[in-house]
User: Fold this.
Amino acid sequence: MKWLKNLIRPEPLVLGNGKIVQPKMSIMVILVPIFIVAILFSAYIIEFDIFILLRRGYQFFVIVGRMIPPDWSYFPEVIGPLVETIMMSIFGTLLGAFLSLPLAFLSSDNIIKNKVFLWTNRMVVSLFRTLPILIFAFILKYIFGIGTFAGTLAIALFTWLIMTKMLYEIIETVDMGPFEAIESSGASRLRAFIVSIVPQILGQYISIALYNFEMNVRSAAILGYVGAGGIGLLLNEKLGWRRYDQVGLILFALLVTVYVIESISRLIRTRLS
Amino acid sequence: MSENILKMYKKRPKDWIVKWGSFLVIALLIAVSVPYVDYNGLTDYGQEIAKSIIFGIIQPDLSLLFDFSKTEAVPYLLLETACIAFLGTLVGSVLALPFAFISSRNIVPKWVATIGTFFITVVRTFPAFVYGLMFIRVTGPGPFTGALTLAVSGIGMTAKLYVETIEDLDKGIIEALDASGCNAIQKIRYGIIPQLMSNFASITIYRFEINVKNASILGLVGAGGIGYPLISAIGAFRWSDAGTLLFGLIVLVLIIEYGSGRLRRKLATGL
Assistant:
């Protein structure tokens, strides 16, 4: 690598006292060409076409323009699916959060000393955690049929896996003193965990559960698209019929809901920390 | 000894109100939300599907997984997904820059920043999928639409995180450069860019990680990537194909998550 560094050498600087300083080569010399190649290659792969954008791009603003003003009279029909969306998220998050504690216990390297068992757990968690929630819902719809159950289960599964990861990262940073003290007085690992570690992580546990709840409300809004209950079904239907004023109302209702939930959640989370 | 322990144990904090209170709140939430979850049992072929999917992931169809020539095979689809995410992230993070600067309270007047923040919040509320549903009606199906969607939907989150970085700017450095006689461009080049660069890069890499996941679901609306082949495989009950595609997606996301984590840790602790 040394010859490469000498290849593109910046001008040496002469300081006031006559000392010559050789600045290091900028990392940009390597990064910029790589980026340019990557951009051109990606543009080729995705069939980048500036003319489509120039010709049709304004249509997006036409659609947004037609959403304003929203069709307020449509509001009563939105309430039902909206409440359904929120309830799906509440139950899914609660179930996922509840299940994540035992699995996080089994995936923390300061509690489980059996490496094989530990890494099997973590492997399974991270394998399925990478899948987007919509794909979970899409598969579950085929297993449990169309309806809110598939959506709720998708939310629960996703929350369970992602919270497990967040939790075991927290558990691994806690103070192990109380745990060891209680274990040495004869308690089992599980008992020691409940008494000494759970109180330490409880605040953060509730905090990440609330954070997940926020995210889940947003993603639950699209689950209806694959037939897994909630407001997404209406959204897709109205977009298909080009009733953009009603789409506008749905999006507005969603905006208000998410904003209210986020504010409440943030309030509780700042109180917790 | 044990008497002391018992004495201390009796003096333990009495938090039964908090315990019962939170228990009640959770019970109430469950009671309210359960009626909305309608369980109708498994579908007729539900068990079989669950089994086939898991088998498909565990035993991927190798001929589909390592076929580099066909565009319907896994490697090309993953490449397309990654390219959509890459360009979408890049354009999105450039688009986010102006919004970030007009929403930072230490750069513009407060009322301008409030308007900017409001706009960012609105954009951020909706998942990328909603933008996808709209863009598909603008530029038609294809991976280009996917990248466009990610670019626009990424503005919200990226700009929000940029603003946090900009508001943390250390003004002392700029004042020091001012005192040593630098002009405006030099102040930006040596005072502002070095402070922002590593955080901005870190945020953009993080967004790329999220966008790979987003790109994989945008296929559901026909915006390119691995999503469409995936749902059509599931819809046509080709379970081993679906499992193979899922396997490929999992591997791609894990690799990108790992790389992104390494890079961001390096950026945070210095190269």
